[in-house]
Amino acid sequence: MIIYFLRHGKRGHGAEQDKLTTEGIEQAKKTALYFKNIKIDKVISGNSKRAIDTTKEIINIKKIPVEYTNNVNEQTLGVLEGKSGEDYRTALNKSGLSKEEFRPEKGENEFDIHNRAKKFIKELKKEKGKNILVVSHSGFISHVISLLLNKSIEAIAGHYGGLIGA
User: Fold this and answer.
1) Contacts of 54 (CB under 8 A, 6+ apart)
2) How far apart are alpha carbons 71 and 48 in whole angstroms?
3) Is the four-CA dihedral 27, 142, 50, 37 of positive or negative sign?
4) Which own/partner pairs from 118-123 qualify as long-range (CB within 8 Å, at least 24 positions apart)?
5) Nearest Cα to 44, choosing from 106, 119, 148?
6) What number of other Cβ atoms are within 10 A of residue 114's Cβ?
7) Starting from the edge strand earliest in sequence, which strands make up the sheet with 131-136, in order?
8) At what angle do helices 138-149 and 110-124 cross, to 10 degrees?
9) C-alpha separations of 94 from 76, 103, 109, 164 in Å
10) Residues 6+ apart with CB under 8 A from 6
């Protein structure tokens, strides 16, 4: 099995955070061309708009099955979704918890996303012998890679394109 991890194209911010920018669309098109002659049996894509739009460019060139799932989405921030980084830091500081422990109302914390990554790896093993492209988000990809390499998130952050917070 070969697994390719692809972060969605560049996105907007604030109200536009789930929409690819013009540059992000171009990135997705170039990436699709890159994968044109690479054997991929299946795409597993997050179901956020930015992941779906990135995936669309790939399946426009390669007619392959796609599974859209929220299992590979970025950490859910609940009531802080779409808010600024400053809003997140304020809520984190008010909570008195560590970043790993802090869970916004209706959201996930680092442990939740890490456990979701574990479940995803377990499911991925069922795809034995297939070449899989995973279109996801930097935070989720970081957790999956940390588990696959048996390293902490902090240990891989500087080695794989600065995945954390990219």
Assistant:
1) 6, 8, 9, 20, 24, 27, 28, 31, 45, 135
2) 11
3) positive
4) 118/147, 119/71, 120/71, 120/72, 120/144, 121/147, 121/148, 123/71
5) 119
6) 19
7) 2-7, 131-136, 42-46, 66-69
8) 70
9) 19, 12, 15, 23
10) 31, 54, 133, 134, 135, 136
The alpha helices in the chain, defined as continuous H runs, are 22-35, 49-61, 85-95, 110-124, 138-149, 153-157
* β partners of residue 43: 66, 133
Q: Which two tokens stand for residue 22?
A: 């013009």
pLDDT digits (tens, 9 = 90+) for 104-157: 999 998 899 999 999 999 999 999 999 999 999 888 999 999 999 998 877 776
- This prediction's pTM: 0.85
Q: Give the Cα separation of 48 and 25 in Å (integer).
A: 15
Residue among 17, 163, 136, 8 at smallest CA distance from 83: 17
d(CA 63, CA 156): 33
